[in-house]
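Researcher: Next sequence.
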Amino acid sequence: MPDQHVRLAGSERPHPAKSVSIAEPVDPNEEIAVTVSLRDAGKNDDPEQRRADAEKVKESLGRYGLRVTDERLEVGSIEMTGKAKDLNRAFRTELKLYHGERQGVFRGREGEIEIPADLDGIVAGVFGLDKRRVARRRVFPGHGDHGSLTPQDLEEQYQFPEGTGRHQKVIILEFNGCYFDADTELFCRNHGLTPPTVNIVPVGYTPPRTLDELRQLPRQEREMAFEVAGEVMMDVQIVVGLAPEADISVLFADWDQKGWIDLLDQVILANPDAVSISYGLAEDDPDWSLLGIHEINKRLAAAAHKGITICVSSGDDGSGDQVGDDQCHVDFPASSPYVLGVGGTKIVRGDVEQSWWVSPGDRNGGGGATGGGVSVVWDRPDWQTVRVDSLNPDAIDGRVVPDVAALAGPPFYDLVFVGHPAPNGGTSASAPLWAALIARVYELLPPAKQHRFLTPLLYGTGTNGKPLGVHACRDIDKGHDNASFPFPGRGYKVRPGYDADTGFGVPVGNELLKALKTV
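Model: Next structure:
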């Protein structure tokens, strides 16, 4: 009698965008790791039931030759490894190879996953069969003649409180890339800082640590790693420069949905004070599976419940977010109700800070703009006491993003890459700045006021009956809207007070510290 399987609702994947199937099959004996997400992932209300579920999963999938390589039962994840042919049998898939214009050759699948019938209601998701890329960022290089800002300049611009982030834990999440110790050391020497210990933590991906190690990789892997290496170094140098005595860890994973799940599992287990994420993809991009985006969001919720503030860049492609249709879009996970969404600004002549927009408002056209708008996936949470009407017809009253902002455009950040000056920016830089600021602020707060999910606090009532974010941020009321061209050709207006370009505005660190002492 054939094995009984049931559909795993929400697991459907379409043909990968901008990719073609290739004739070469997946090696049936290739060893593949998958992360199995259990029901109620992110919660641990019933440890006994969780252990029983885990045993059932191991027994059932073990019949297909899968073996356990990691258990994260506090979060609700089990990593299992098996041969491609066995995974195809276990999950009724047909794994294929594809070639994408940016990703090169990768493994993928189409259609739904099926799971053994005895796991129905126990298994909520299976991730790692499909390696399509669902984490995007791109270098937005500055130019040496702009007078890029040093850590000291940034501290002055945003009135950071005294301190170094000592005893605070900051985690930076990266997908692919490299980490060059020599660049961090040179950056610190340039700015009179003692190089800290930066903990590099592979989570399914081990980054090259030198150019020689990078050169040893196969060409496709080498090019993909180097493509974002400058961005990795930017994230680290911004945090190191602004919170040099924080406990800094950089976690590396692959670009796929499994990478997101595995990284966030580690965040929950590590329980840091702040996290920086400078990656994302339009929340309604078809390369996300419905299950994937919701299982990721469960883990973001679990982190927020523990008091972890995850700072996420809102994207660098304005209102279109590189989707290319007539609708406005926002980036996920910045659009999640369980993170701090961070938009971008630029500083123009006369030291005027305004919303970041460079024609045509999209990196594919050589420009860029702060991401922001109204979610079509996540409802506006009760604590978000502001409202911005969506520019999409008949849209839901969705979560508005970003919550706050910081420098993304000119004059950019003073950074080092492969031993040379490399000014850089984008909202990819705004997120680690906020993570470093949180570490600096928490250092000076009494213990009972530390380690709290910041975002709802910003919308809560501060002094004079106004949201705390009004007191803790400087309003950005000038600049272009965040329209990207040619699509959708419209964007969210910059206006006095809260808006969907820069949220409450840019930080005033000393005022944020003062405000958090009162709530």
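Model: The chain has twelve helices and 27 strands. The first strand starts at residue 5 and ends at 7.
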